[in-house]
Amino acid sequence: MIEPTIKLSDEQVASYHREGYLAIEAITTHDEVARLREIYDRLFAQRVGREEGNQFDLAGADDEDAEASLPQILSPVKYAPELANTLCRANALAIAKQLLGPEAEYHGEHAILKPAFHGAETPWHQDEAYWDSALEYNELSVWIPLQEANLENGCMHFIPRSHQLEVMPHHSINHDPRIHGLEIDKIDAAPAVACPLPPGGATFHGPRTLHYTPPNRSAISRRAYILGFGTPAKKRATPRDFYWNQMKKTAREERVQQMQKKS
Predict the structure, then answer these.
(1) What stretch of H or E contains 57?
(2) For 126-177, what is each residue's pLDDT tens digit?
(3) Which residues, 6 or more positions from 155, have their beta carbon under 8 angstroms from its beta carbon?
(4) What is the mean pLDDT of residues 107-112?
(5) Which of 114, 127, 145, 243 lies 20 to 30 Å (CA to CA) from residue 41?
(6) CATH T-level fold of 10-262
(7) pTM of whole model > 0.90?
(8) Alpha-carbon span 210 to 189, nearest angstrom
(9) Where are the domains of the chain?
């Protein structure tokens, strides 16, 4: 078991809770970033998880013969078990315990690729808009770039203190129910803060923190590896209506249903 090597300062913890996000320059070593990048590129080249709905185009209609503009892989550790024992995961969990409490645990992961020159933007959204509307969450996401992340290739942008908001109305990107990705109905992005990072840096944000990444206009693919942590979700006294999720009719959902019928 790899032991963590990072601990946040009291000032960093206070900043996260005040602003709803935090950025750090390094969550792992350069050597591990290189290893993670090799695994990452292999998984995307092989399109692992495609048949079962774990690989799909987050920003497009996910046509089988079309090149994806924002390919995503859910649970990459399922296809590369070596991802379960990394320094970045150990450090991310240690930081999650600092920010969320000692009960915080690993809750999942995914990887999002912005291809060189044409990788699509990830529109402004709140992560919780994708989740179960009947539950109350104490979660955070750890976003780790495996190369430099900057304004040209798609670094993270946050709206400070937006974590204090309720989940706001969303819709499928471009109002197209074939698209899995969501975007918020209305937003004032003027207060947004960009968070460029070196390879192996990390941002942390809560499930209601508004965030965005611009398109990739560079000659290098932008690789982001995302880890999720949280404490056990609790049932809400009053469920919410996340109607936008019921409106989706995606190719990914069809593949998931086909796999369920086979099992």
Answers:
(1) strand 55-57
(2) 999 999 999 999 999 999 999 999 999 999 999 999 999 999 999 999 999 9
(3) 145, 149, 194, 195, 196, 197, 213, 214
(4) 98
(5) 127
(6) Jelly Rolls (2.60.120)
(7) yes
(8) 9
(9) 10-262
